[in-house]
Each structure stands twice: as structure tokens, then as C-alpha cells.
Amino acid sequence: MGVLLIDQDGVLADFEQGLFDAFCARFPTGPAIRPADRRGFYAREQYEPEWRPAVNAIVRSKGFYRNLPEIAGGRAALEEMRAADHDVFVCTAPLSDAPRCAPEKLDWIERHLGRDWVDRTIIVKDKSLVGNWLKPCVLVDDRPGVSARGVASPPWAHVLFDAPYNQGEPGPRLSCWADWRAVLDPVLAAQRR
Amino acid sequence: MGVLLIDQDGVLADFEQGLFDAFCARFPTGPAIRPADRRGFYAREQYEPEWRPAVNAIVRSKGFYRNLPEIAGGRAALEEMRAADHDVFVCTAPLSDAPRCAPEKLDWIERHLGRDWVDRTIIVKDKSLVGNWLKPCVLVDDRPGVSARGVASPPWAHVLFDAPYNQGEPGPRLSCWADWRAVLDPVLAAQRR
Predict the structure, then answer these.
(1) In the CATH hierarchy, which fold is given to the domain comprising A3-14+69-192?
(2) Strand partners, A139
(3) 3-state secondary structure of A187
(4) Where are the domains positioned within chain B?
């Protein structure tokens, strides 16, 4: 059995849908970018420069992280993983200079996954420091290149969680939560230490 | 150079002094236990059973974690460690069922250490999952037996931060922050990978 680290935004919580909805609500005639049309990891950078302060303000506004919708199937997959005797943790990097982000992420975990998952949530900017070198270990994350960030060589294999903004990236990819066993099991097997 | 993980409560933030002060303020004639008289890791368990709910309420009250005093020398030691090219992170396990704990710990970090330390703070219940197997790695923590908790064999060597309630425990011990080099350097040297 392995250690499974599961990213939060873009994997369990639907950051892109939340941003789109909030942008449309604030700027009904503004140039909202639909989630399906998002390209590049940072939404802010896809917006024209004059709209970037608006995006920055939305993702720092009260309730933004707390009220993100769920990505379908994530909650069920987490429970299935635990039932399969994996050690499962949510592993999330909060936005910098956004004091509401970490607390609201924990609120989201409690509301959507339940209180015991709060104790299984790791808040860490540098995910290369988290994991286990002695057991198979995987990080499911929507961010391309996450394994090359940070001070350490990470112990986990990165499985990219599919999104419109990370197409064309190499490596194993999880396209929907229903497929987690088919995608993660071979990666874990290849990691047997 | 190594990876240094520094616990927060009882190491950087003075949990015991904060609890004593809060207990005295709420119960001026109550049986407050002075920090120097504390025995056993959990303060709650040293109080008589009828006072334990009061202790639980104090450590969950608004502002408790935010307002803890500093332990002398911690802040300076952190900056010295960074200046010595160590990778330094605060590594803290929040209280369970205490939604204010994690956010207030981050507030404390920002107020006492500065905003850039917020991004260097890791909030994790199971510290065995944090660290680096490829570099020398140390956890400074006041909790006896912390290395035997958790799902993994931790990559760090535990250096116990001295406290009245952890006397008699084996292993390397840091008695005050001014001595950090003398105590940590040999532990890091013994860990060269």
C-alpha cells in the first residue's frame, strides 16, 4: 500500500469554476475566461493586464476558497483509497500573501470531506519536502513541473490531474477520479522500494 | 547544509506561559500550574479532572494561539540558520478539533517572524511525512517520542527542545536557542547521506 498525496485546488476543489463564477458576478460584461478555455497554469496571466488586479482581488476575497465547488468524484475516490489501505493525505500549497487562503482551505476540507480529513491535510508551500521514501508514494496534482520545484528531490511520483490548462505535458495523467485505480496502481507498482 | 524543521509551540511560541497566564486571568484563585512545574507533555492531563474542560476551553479560545509570547532567542536563531545556508522551515501540528488553531499559528508566524516565514511554515499533523532523505535533516521539537508517531520512518533526527515537562528523555537536547550550532551541527554531521 502506498502514500497518496492529493492536491486540493484543481483536483478536489474547482478553483477555475469558482474564479469564473466570481468574475462573471463582479463583471457581468467583462472578459471572463471559461474554464474550458483556460491555458497556462496561472489564470491571472491569461487575462489581459488591465484585468489582472481584478483576478488577484477575487482570489483573495472573503469566502473565495471556502466556497469553491467540488470536482466530481474526488470525495468518493479519497474514501475508496483509504478503504484500500493507502495512507491518504490532502497536500496543498496556499497562495502567498493571502491570509484567508489556508484557513478557508481547511474550512472547505471540513465542510466537504469531514472533520477527520482536516487532520489529514498538509499545508505546505514546498511539496518536495512531503512524502515517504520507504513506501510507494504518489502526488496527484494539476500543476505541471511540480516535482522540479522546491529544495528537495521529492519522494513521490507526480501524476498530473487533467485540466484544460495542462494539456500536452508529459507523464502519467489522471483524467477523472473514477479512473484512479487504473492510473495510480501502475505508478505505485513501479515505485516499490 | 541541512534541512532544519522547527516546531512552533514550546519551541518558538511559549504555549505553557500563554496557558498559565490565561488560566490565572480566568480563574484567579484556581490551581494554575506554573510553567516550571509542568510535568508530562499534555498540560490538560496534569490538571485535576474537574479543571480539564477549562484547559480545553482556554486553548480553543479566540486569540490563544495568536497571542502566545515568544520563546527567547528563537527568532534570531531562525535567521542565523538561514544565513548559514540551511533550508529552514517551521513545522507545526495543529490541535485537532480546534478550527482557530492553524490560522492563528500562521498569524503568529507573520507577526513575530515576518511574512516570508508564512511561506516557510508547514502545517501537518503527521511530521513523519516531512523532511528530506537526501540531505541531513533535523526536527527540533519539544515532544518526546515524536519520531515514533506517524505512518512513515521520518527522514529527520529529532533534537528535543528542552522543557520542564520533557526531562529525562534520551537523545540530543537543545536547552536554549543560543546553543543551536553546538547542538545541531554534530547531529547534522552524523546524518551526512
Answers:
(1) Rossmann fold (3.40.50)
(2) A5, A158
(3) helix
(4) 3-14+69-192, 15-59
Q: Does B181 touch chain A (CB under 8 A)?
A: no
CB within 8 Å of chain A, chain B residues 82-121:
87, 89, 96-97, 99, 102-103, 106-107, 110, 115, 118-121
Indicate the range of A28-42, A148-162, B30-44 predicted with least confidence: A148-162
Asked if A3-14+69-192 and A15-59 have one fold, the answer is: no
Residue B110 burial (CB count, 10 A): 14
CATH code of the domain made up of A15-59: 1.10.40.40
ipTM reported for the complex surpasses 0.90:
yes
B130/A124 touch (CB, cutoff 8 Å), yes or no = yes
The DSSP bridge partners found for residue B88 are B4
- Tell me the shortest Cα–Cα distance from B148 to chain A, in angstroms: 15
In angstroms, what separates the C-alpha of B59 from chain A's closest C-alpha? 17
Distance CA B190, CA A64 (A): 47
Contacts of B180 (CB under 8 A, 6+ apart): B77, B80, B81, B140, B174
A87-92 β-sheet, strand order = A173-174, A157-161, A137-141, A3-6, A87-92, A121-123, B121-123, B87-92, B3-6, B137-141, B157-161, B173-174
Cross-strand pairs, B122: B91
**pTM to 2 decimal places:** 0.96
Burial of B138: CB neighbours in 10 Å, binned 0-12, 13-18, 19+: buried
CA–CA min distance B96, chain A (Å): 7
Q: What is the pLDDT of residues B43-56, one digit of tens each?
A: 999 999 999 999 99
Q: Do A132 and B123 touch (CB under 8 A)?
A: no
Q: According to the model, what pLDDT value does residue B149 have? A: 83
B20 touches B34 (CB < 8 A) = yes
Residue B122 has pLDDT above 90, yes or no: yes
